[in-house]
Amino acid sequence: MTLTFKGRPIDMAIENSYEQTFADFWQNILCDENGEIDLDSVKRELHDYYIVMQEATKVYHELTGGKISKPNTKAVHVIQLAYEHFAIYKD
What we know:
91 residues; mainly alpha; 2 strands
């Protein structure tokens, strides 16, 4: 099974340059109408990101039987270990 994001394999989506990611995703969120960085928006997004990172750590740890807890682990690895972890409960 190949996991995709926006029609591309996950590995390709993750490998995008940070500049492209900013232009495609963050620029409209973090910049004002003049293209200037809005510090308040950055602070709010970083706060949300922090919460996501903290919560993802807990989910990864639980789903993988404690084998993964780093939130920047590629999803394909978390999913594989989750399948393996829960396979013991199938029987």
